[in-house]
């Protein structure tokens, strides 16, 4: 540095120690005061030092990092400039500049270094720069090709000295995946491009500039065309006007560029109107970076050519900086135009990533980032904009005004669709390219693969069941972001059948992403596949994010790996077994690969638990491709596995060519397999051409798994024999991995071949599940998955493909399938009976009401306080009435001690109206304020029901036919005292008077020592409305469902039914029914059979709400403890809701079961108040209209009906767990007996008795009248003793009142009815 040298020349020569101190101070000062001179180029070392120095000096706004390395190991440096550069802040759009892509085009490299320094030094001084840095996430990469720069020579204007390409001589701007051409590039040769692809797809940049040299012009997409005409072909993108505008922003701020006349010596005739050009019109550039950004990266990028001379002399640099400074700044500022906002879940409020933002009339969508944020650059105008995501109802906003300047803010909240019910599920309306390009699945030769230096597995040994389980748990814990471990069932000996799924979003099926699986160890003594799959798990996990191929596979595929389908057989197999059978079969001694249903013969052996588990698994996930790994030979075997006549001959499937293709993809990567001569020492005559064979041609296998896959699911499966020795020695395992590792990866790549797309409804964009995809001349159809997406494996060629679905007009088109990649083909089907307005047939459809955006005000899982419940319920009621077409009702049950309202919500198509024929169910929560998880779940449940009314047929029917009452918080005072994340705290358990409300429910005066708490009284009044059929109470602190009673009783009448009701909830909960649900934070330890227990066995106590509901409300109530933590953190609520949603819905269904009916007399008059006695014990009463409904466990039951003045009736009913309630009609005859005697005799006797009584009364009256005159004086004398007489009357009256009170307030349990009911229950 010249400044530093000048300073040192003036320093006096002192003794060495003093000189050293001064030198240190001077060097430090010189570093701090270094000022850019704009007169030299920075080589790699200079560039690294300069960038590091700036990052250290401005840490509050600058962060330096590398996104990868060049071929020669140089870092690809990126300077991030924004406020708080070490954290990701939502709300700031991401912008990038990339320079020096061609190593000999060097002006961009220096100009970008100057821009970095300018932004950092002017931050805090100039308001324009300060605002830009504060509101934008700016990334600047000065050199994408540092190796090429080092080869270039200063003054070389035309690039004659080399340096344009990277160190592998690859042109980086011809090496990106292209929309028109199949780019054939070895990824190992272009690490710079692979790093850029990862970076672009990860960051989701909004706007970008790619800086080059060789002319002076701004070029915009597309860079090439389908015809690849060398020049003159305008290749227009969907955002052509916007790209032209962005290019003009740069060119019009550049004094030379805006003239349109670069006057470059080698092209003096070249003129660009306004200094801009369409890329392909200038010249065709296949594989360019700007097109990749637009098509696959969510980002709009243009290419700026900054100077005619590619590598001008350093003395020109200051001029170039002055020419480009304003253009560079003005272009960055355009990242804030158009529309911006967030997309969130309407229920949980959580941000939604990868939601498509669709602008009507512009067929190019972009997607939201990880915070649900999006930035859609648009020119000023009026637009209709829709947010679309699989599993959610699309939300469209009309007439969005975009003005010049800063972006219009537009937020979306999407309501989820019920996946359990039948019917369409909304998906992306418009076709859009995947943000993870399948074209990247280029073949990497085995010889070249070492150049990427992936991490290889380190542990090669045999894993028994315990070792395998530990291995899987370890990787599940170590790589939770890409790994999910689950179980599909158990073996005969009760070992888990584990599956590990590896993907960037491993827990869910992502729309458009294919499902792939490997299964091994089906025969327990064939163990190589088991160990290879464990090696594969380690390889994928440890190389994700660093190895391009692994990262691409994991990001674009959901890979399921089952290391062992027969863990029992493995445990008895013996190491060193070459061709034996010990351990081959399962523990019941059945061959699992002969146990599946077969197309040609009937399999008579009983279906084994392992087989059943796999069949259920394959039906539940839309697998596309699979391999079943075996041992005993070295070949890939494809369907069919058997022949109709049972002969060993070629048995061809309709997709024979596809099966041969995917089989060769594996075998050709395993040289020993591909040569076709396996196991010469064991089977000398065996030969398989190319290392593949048709299964039946080799030998017949009836009941095989691969054929069942193909014939019964969408999945194409082959069987791979991995080696001649079934159970090799552990020392040989490394060579098996080395022989098969490339083949295992290449086979997964095959899932990205053929055709894929979405079948949706033309009218509303709803995905159509179970639509049929048929290919002409191939007699094998596949069907779409739940959100309408499909994958159809095909060999390269041109096909006619038809999509059809019930109720829609089929659509047929042709498609050309390219080699080595998948072709996207979407279908939009028209309903058969649509009217002229495009309306669907009558009946609710899962479509979106344009005004549904109002539901964004409904927030679930946001820790609603007790005082907010009322306003939330009122808003919900208003919006459901306005937009869903039905009315819910909010009411106050009473107030707490601290005068908080206890709210109730009734959800019904006719709330407030008496509908005795409909069952009525009560959901309550929050009796213990320190366990508010139930409150949150019920609020979410209410939102879920209301939002899906009219859209989901099942939910709509349930609401129409059920009266649902939800009381989310019985103890609002306690809820306000409770503390979040306190799993065991008792703070808030009681009400404000310190009373545990679940010990305050007493119906008898003799049992109550103090007056009921106000919260208790409110609930008792609700319960005493005897119209309820079932009640479900939610609590926390355990994971179990309990049934009555809480009080200690010797036996419980009707216990079978009560236990059954609790088991319905537990069985529909993914964890509860397993029984091993002990919570370390309470007394619930050990195994709880089926997750159900009698309440008293858990914690016996008197005065519970459950017992009061049973004894006085005549309504069974179960209490569900939904989790071990009493007050879990908010982030745990979403998974808790997912666990409980199905169980809550199951109770809505269950309330419609049992037995129901009407009681009437012979004339048809309904009898109200009749007693229905169930199995000689439990009683229910008929309500208005004579209706009754009783829940009963499945089985045979005796029904007795009793009513005063009528003959008793008896009936037997059979209740099924799969059917709605048994409906019966009970008709009463008049009872003609009185006191057991004939009615006529009793009436005659009564008449005679009355006549005799009247005669006797007349005689007595006459006698008394005769004596009355003689007794007058006596009466007069009695009046003289009035005081004594009054005293006597007073005593007599007191005695009478005492008797009356005693009768009026006697113990209620003394009544015959109550005593009988209490004893029987």
TrEMBL record:
<feature type="compositionally biased region" description="Polar residues">
    <location>
        <begin position="835"/>
        <end position="850"/>
    </location>
</feature>
<dbReference type="InterPro" id="IPR057246">
    <property type="entry name" value="CARBOXYPEPT_ZN_1"/>
</dbReference>
<dbReference type="InterPro" id="IPR008969">
    <property type="entry name" value="CarboxyPept-like_regulatory"/>
</dbReference>
<dbReference type="InterPro" id="IPR033848">
    <property type="entry name" value="M14_CPD_III"/>
</dbReference>
<keyword id="KW-0645">Protease</keyword>
<keyword id="KW-0325">Glycoprotein</keyword>
<dbReference type="Pfam" id="PF13620">
    <property type="entry name" value="CarboxypepD_reg"/>
</dbReference>
<keyword id="KW-1133">Transmembrane helix</keyword>
<feature type="region of interest" description="Disordered">
    <location>
        <begin position="430"/>
        <end position="454"/>
    </location>
</feature>
<feature type="domain" description="Peptidase M14">
    <location>
        <begin position="40"/>
        <end position="335"/>
    </location>
</feature>
<dbReference type="GO" id="GO:0004181">
    <property type="term" value="F:metallocarboxypeptidase activity"/>
</dbReference>
<feature type="active site" description="Proton donor/acceptor">
    <location>
        <position position="721"/>
    </location>
</feature>
<comment type="similarity">
    <text>Belongs to the peptidase M14 family.</text>
</comment>
<keyword id="KW-0121">Carboxypeptidase</keyword>
<dbReference type="InterPro" id="IPR057247">
    <property type="entry name" value="CARBOXYPEPT_ZN_2"/>
</dbReference>
<feature type="domain" description="Peptidase M14">
    <location>
        <begin position="854"/>
        <end position="1151"/>
    </location>
</feature>
<keyword id="KW-0862">Zinc</keyword>
<dbReference type="GO" id="GO:0006518">
    <property type="term" value="P:peptide metabolic process"/>
</dbReference>
<keyword id="KW-0472">Membrane</keyword>
<feature type="domain" description="Peptidase M14">
    <location>
        <begin position="461"/>
        <end position="751"/>
    </location>
</feature>
<protein>
    <submittedName>
        <fullName>Carboxypeptidase D</fullName>
    </submittedName>
</protein>
<feature type="compositionally biased region" description="Low complexity">
    <location>
        <begin position="433"/>
        <end position="450"/>
    </location>
</feature>
<dbReference type="Pfam" id="PF00246">
    <property type="entry name" value="Peptidase_M14"/>
</dbReference>
<feature type="transmembrane region" description="Helical">
    <location>
        <begin position="1241"/>
        <end position="1266"/>
    </location>
</feature>
<dbReference type="InterPro" id="IPR050753">
    <property type="entry name" value="Peptidase_M14_domain"/>
</dbReference>
<dbReference type="GO" id="GO:0016485">
    <property type="term" value="P:protein processing"/>
</dbReference>
<keyword id="KW-0378">Hydrolase</keyword>
<keyword id="KW-0732">Signal</keyword>
<keyword id="KW-0812">Transmembrane</keyword>
<dbReference type="GO" id="GO:0005615">
    <property type="term" value="C:extracellular space"/>
</dbReference>
<feature type="active site" description="Proton donor/acceptor">
    <location>
        <position position="305"/>
    </location>
</feature>
<feature type="region of interest" description="Disordered">
    <location>
        <begin position="833"/>
        <end position="852"/>
    </location>
</feature>
<feature type="region of interest" description="Disordered">
    <location>
        <begin position="150"/>
        <end position="183"/>
    </location>
</feature>
<feature type="signal peptide">
    <location>
        <begin position="1"/>
        <end position="30"/>
    </location>
</feature>
<keyword id="KW-0479">Metal-binding</keyword>
<dbReference type="InterPro" id="IPR000834">
    <property type="entry name" value="Peptidase_M14"/>
</dbReference>
<keyword id="KW-0482">Metalloprotease</keyword>
<dbReference type="GO" id="GO:0008270">
    <property type="term" value="F:zinc ion binding"/>
</dbReference>
